[in-house]
Amino acid sequence: QVQLVESGGGSVQAGDSLRLSCAASGFTFDYYAIGWFRQAPGKEREGLLCITTINSNTVYAASVKGRFTLSRDNAKNMASLQMNSLKPDDTAKYYCAAPHSRVCNANWYAYDFRGQGTQVTVSS
After folding, report:
1. What is the pLDDT of residue 78?
2. How does pLDDT run across 61-98, given as a tens digit for each residue?
3. Which of 97, 85, 25 lies closest to 60 in space, CA to CA?
4. What whole-number distance in Å separates Cα of residue 80 and Cα of residue 64?
5. Torsion of CA 74, 65, 104, 6, to 10 degrees
6. 116's torsion region: left (phi>0), alpha (psi -120 to 50) or beta?
7. How many CA atoms lie within 13 A of 97 on its CB side?
């Protein structure tokens, strides 16, 4: 059974940092890229970053460039999203996902495996 489980969300103050984790099981993790998305209430889901199987990062959202970084540990079947200098506009539910590919994609619908999300709330 394929599973992606996000953790590490919470409520923080503006300027704080959070590290989200994505634990994968049920598929060969190191064969697939991993992407992170977020969705705020009343807004469309937004592609943030993606990391390929060889640890090449692609940033899709200009709003997080320089603040968010993505890493993966293939031995542990884990991916991590480090979020620094958080802003109230970063408040959203954050999702990790895996496309059926080694190649990154900004389109949510290109991702076959998706987690349930973890909530991040940033107050000013």
Report:
1. 96
2. 999 999 999 999 999 999 999 999 999 999 999 999 99
3. 97
4. 15
5. 50
6. alpha
7. 27
